[in-house]
Design brief:
about 130 residues, alpha/beta, Rossmann fold
Length: about 130
């Protein structure tokens, strides 16, 4: 189970789904914040440092890969674990995934336990 003090940033343009997922995480003592696009996610991360990011790939504006690269360029976030989660990654581009430094991919609908396990895994590495 995730420890109290987990700070998770959830980024997805599907407002209802990501808001609901954030509420679910709260039931497991995981503090989370939500952004609905790449630009606001980068701003939020700079203001509210997360321990792990779950990032949609297919979004308007910046896609998930571009967002991850921008997040990693922020001071202190070069090693931030970023997990790709997407229902459909039209690019499914392993090169872009690697260049963005993402740690793994989850396919939506994601399993809550998989997310909790990843949060716990990266908390243990802190």
């Amino acid at each position: 189970m995730a420890q109290v003090g987990s700070r998770v940033l959830l980024v997805d343009d599907n407002h209802d789904a990501v808001d609901m997922f954030s509420e679910l995480l709260g039931l497991y003592n995981v503090e989370s914040r939500v952004a609905y696009d790449g630009y606001s996610a980068i701003t939020l991360l700079a203001e509210w440092p997360a321990n792990i990011v779950f990032l949609d790939i297919v979004m308007p504006g910046l896609d998930g890969y571009e967002t991850a690269i921008a997040m990693r360029s922020l001071p202190g976030f070069a090693d931030l674990p970023i997990v790709a989660w997407s229902g459909w990654d039209r690019q499914h581009n392993d090169e872009a995934f690697s260049r963005a430094g993402m740690v793994c991919r989850l396919t939506k609908p994601v399993d809550l336990q998989d997310v909790l396990d990843l949060i716990h895994l990266y908390e243990a590495r802190r």
